[in-house]
Amino acid sequence: MAPTKLFITGSTGFIGGSVLDAIQSTYPELEITALLRKPNESFTSRYPSIKIIKGTFEDFDIIQDASEQADIVLHAGNTDHMASVKAILAGLAKKTTQSLLLHLTGTASISDTMQGNKAYAGKLNPRVWNDIDDVDEIYNLSTDIIHRDVDRLIADANNELIKTITISPPDIYGQKTGSGTTGSFLVPEYDKAIIELKKAFYLGEGQNIRGLVHISDVVSLFVLILGKYLQGGEGLDYGKEGFYFASSDGVKWKDAAEAIARIGHEQGWLPEETQPVSLSLEEFVKLRFKNSFFQDQIILYMWGSNSRAESARAKRLGWEPKGPSFWDCLAEDCRVAAEEYAKASK
Q: Which domain of life is it from (predicted)?
């Protein structure tokens, strides 16, 4: 019997690289092909058996052809890149045998501020989205909201031959595994921001809650779902219902800001005399940093919004988050982020 072929994008990213490392060791029988913009020696030496296809998300034909040759496509790259998803689906549509598209997205689409609701900015929003009870509402969210156009396209593409599953983690903490070249986002970018400002900050009361998950728990859900599919798919949901939150915890941002400030003082990258400050909404959205990605909407989403999810569907499948807590990882995550910022600033 021919080996099952898996095509992966985003394999040098924080999530994709960590997932690849786990599935390559857990399922060594898979024949894996990776799309890489520029293959590097660390990747090729670590994974000598993985076939590399040179290309970018703009290379429609390359992605289409690789997808057509695959039994499983794991899309862990730019989750909002519509053209690459269309190329994947076009390739899978050419197949006469069943295939799986396993897609990575995120919980920004359930953020209250991303949905245009600023009433709870800096405050506790009691809403917790459940991926079973709220699946219809999630599916029907406006495609103008971040991620939703691609997520909807993938859900709608599900049919007898193309099975689609979307995994949606919230903010991730912890350090990468594998050959990934990037890190997490929430804490590292906040560290860089407060280093530039020379003070920690939060919005208003700082009671808004960010959903969280350790990188190892995101990886374990990918591995679990992939394993279930390889064994015949019992218990898996696809299409609209194939939407799996991967959330395990949450943190009030004032608590995080205060803890990060203390760590910054202890590690020496934040002036010891500075204390976290509460900013008004007007002050908050006017913050600007060296990274031009952080404009008012993104700043408000990252550190001023609520984005809370209940992973009912994943837990029904047997997923159990076992990674270390946010607080146990925070000092190391801050240290790594501060060191990387210092290197980049030289």
A: Eukaryota
Q: What is the pLDDT of residue 183?
A: 81
Inside any domain, residue 24: yes
pLDDT at 161 exceeding the cut of 70: yes
Give me the amino acid identity at 179.
Answer: S
- For residue 290, the model assigns a pLDDT of 84
Q: Residue 76 to residues 20, 105, 168: CA-CA distances in angstroms?
A: 10, 8, 11
C-alpha distances in angstroms, 80 versus 83, 112, 320? 9, 19, 28
Q: Which of 199, 166, 212 is nearest to 269 (CA)?
A: 199
Residue 282 lies in a domain: no
The DSSP-derived string for 107-145 is GGGG-TTTTT--TTTTS-----EETTTTHHHHHTS-TTS
